[in-house]
Amino acid sequence: MNKVLLALNVVLLAAVGFLYFQHYEYKKKDHHVIQETKNAAATPFKIAYFELDSLESKYEYLKEVQGYLRDIDAKNTKYLRDQQEAYMQKVKEYQQKGPTMSQAEQGQYEQDLMARQNKLRTEQEDRSQQIGAEQMRKMQEVKQKIRDGLRDYCKERGYSYVFASSDQDNLIYYKDSLRDVTGDIIKLLNDKYAADKKKK
Count of CB atoms within 10 A of residue 181's CB? Predict the structure, then answer.
């Protein structure tokens, strides 16, 4: 019986020691987080902005993406215009042949025209959705590249926030030109893009 009590006391003593150690280890970690929070609150944060209009005109990757999107839009417009012209040619053909056709031939021709018109309308909607999705995907890629570049830039220079300013959609009502980092960001993004391009 004494041996069982002794073993139980040893186990309890080990458990109390373990809990004691865990408690102070938790306090130490908690103290570290509290200290980081105090340091962050005591440090003044820096804010900067960049001109989105300048970025759009000088960031090479963005210009390349815009060119790509213009090309697919132009190809799509040409294809749909060609399809519309082919449909209109069929309508003109029907109008010329209509008086000489039998009623059954006219009915068949009208059904064919309706099917072509429905196919054209469906194709226009589908292509419009595909192009919209591609534009969204490519612009998200651009946005992610800008974010990735800004993440490193802000760490190096100690910025907490970097805003984009634009003439069309400006949420910033006052901008101190000393905080304008547009040139730095354009150079950083173009250098990063050129390096990525060389890797491929």
Answer: 19
Report the alpha-carbon distance of residue 14 to residue 21 in Å, rounded: 11
Query: What is the overall mean pLDDT for the chain?
Result: 82
Query: How far is residue 27's CA from residue 24's CA, in Å, rounded to a whole number?
Result: 5
Dihedral, CA atoms, 117, 118, 119, 122, nearest 10 degrees? 120
Tokens of 188: 């950083």
Bridge partners, 159 (sequence order): 46
Whole-model pTM: value is 0.66
What are the backbone angles phi and psi of residue 88, rounded to the nearest 5°? -65, -35
Give 142-172 pLDDT, tens digit per residue.
999 998 988 888 888 888 888 888 877 666 6
**Tokens standing for 140?**
């998200």
Query: What is the gyration radius of the CA atoms in the chain, in angstroms?
Result: 34
Looking at residue 173, its pLDDT comes to: 59
Q: Residue 62 and residue 138: Cα distance in Å, rounded? A: 9
Residue 139 — very low, low, confident or very high, per pLDDT cuts 50/70/90? very high
Q: 46 has which bridge partners?
A: 159
Q: Collect all residues with Cβ–Cβ distance below 8 Å to 179 and sequence separation of at least 6.
A: 47, 48, 49
User: What does the H/E/C string look like for 49-79?
Assistant: EEEHHHHHHHCHHHHHHHHHHHHHHHHHHHH
